[in-house]
Write a structure and sequence with these properties.
about 290 residues; D-Maltodextrin-Binding Protein, domain 2; Alpha-Beta Plaits; six-stranded mixed sheet; 8 helices; binds phosphoribosyl ATP; binds zinc ion
């Protein structure tokens, strides 16, 4: 628990999340999966939790880096694209795996494009002026950056720019606007960013939160597997099912058979199942794991 000296309030970690929009649902879900029950999740300016020492602030995503930098909030959940564009001195502490997209350069479909040098001298519309400038500089391209605040994808169609730099996920917005993605400037996902040098009691709460986030993430990458196998195959089966340490093997009532329980990585999953079948495994059950802690 957080340390409390007499008369001083217990430490609270203030978390900024997006008020509404693409990251809102997943941010709330993550906190819930970490066992943090929010008193009211819906659109107050801020809320608290009775079972974890946090206060959650609901903000526009663009404001989150500044709020964390100013220490109005201690940590924030925001797209890496916004974090890097705002360029504040705050730390990226965890990649959260949702809100995936990429900041990309796109040109009209009919425009010939053979490489970055084709962008030299063109006018490029974007809301990500800092990231775009950095990218052009790194590649020694001189182009005119035209800052606009929204609907970037329509800029070439109305003669406002020759190309654009904007976020893409499925690519359908580019397609319907007659544009073609030509370069990825930055792959992005939601991240947890924190103010630098948090006071020790706040850092302790953040460490607890990170342990929980890690447990939730690990659990998503693995499945629990239960199966029955003839005893003469147990050695083979144990060889492909390492489990957290080694598989649990329990004799069944039927002589010569055992029940085997283990953990498998999602990536190896189908390959493991095929090998298990080859080793005469039967009654294979696969169950999701809610949390996984070392
Ligand atoms: O109100 P507030 O300022 O908080 O929200 P916002 O409207 O600025 O942001 P929002 O909710 O649209 O996005 C929040 C974050 O979600 C972004 O900063 C990204 O980190 C992430 N994200 C993931 C995306 C997308 N995918 C995405 N596809 N943000 C925006 N888009 C837009 C993109 O700008 C384009 O208009 O979706 C369109 C492209 O999508 P596709 O699927 O057609 O390619
Ligand atoms: Zn925004």
């Amino acid at each position: 628990m957080t340390q409390q000296t007499t008369g001083e309030p217990a430490a609270i970690l203030r978390i900024a999340i997006q008020k509404s929009g693409r990251l809102y649902e997943d941010s709330i879900r993550l906190l819930r999966e970490c066992g943090i029950e929010l008193n009211n999740g819906n659109k107050q300016l801020k809320t608290t939790s009775d079972n974890f020492p946090v206060e959650v602030y609901f903000l526009r995503d663009d404001d989150i880096p500044q709020y964390v930098f100013d220490r109005v909030a201690d940590i924030g959940i925001v797209g890496e694209n916004v974090l890097l564009e705002k360029n504040k001195e705050i730390d990226l502490v965890y990649r959260l795996g949702f809100g995936r997209c990429r900041l990309s350069l796109a040109v009209p479909k009919a425009m010939p494009y053979s490489g970055l040098s084709d962008l030299a001298g063109l006018k490029i519309a974007t809301t990500y002026t800092h990231l775009l400038q950095q990218y052009l500089d790194k590649n020694s391209i001189v182009a005119e950056i035209h800052e606009i605040s929204g609907s970037v994808e329509i800029a070439p169609g109305i003669g406002l720019a020759d190309a654009i730099c904007d976020l893409v996920s499925s690519g359908s917005t580019l397609f319907t606007n007659g544009l073609r993605e030509v370069e990825v400037v930055l792959p992005s996902e939601a991240v947890l960013a924190a103010a630098q040098n948090l006071a020790a009691p706040k850092q302790a709460i953040l460490d607890k939160l990170l342990l929980r986030i890690n447990a939730v993430h690990r659990a998503k990458r693995v499945k629990y597997i239960l199966l029955n196998a003839p005893n003469d195959q147990l050695e083979n089966i144990a060889g492909i099912l390492p489990g957290a340490k080694s598989p649990t093997i329990v004799p069944l009532a039927e002589p010569g058979w055992s029940s085997v329980q283990s953990v498998v990585n999602e990536n190896d999953f189908w390959e493991v199942i095929e090998k298990l079948k080859a080793f005469k495994a039967e009654g294979i059950l696969v169950v999701p794991i809610e949390k996984m802690i070392d």
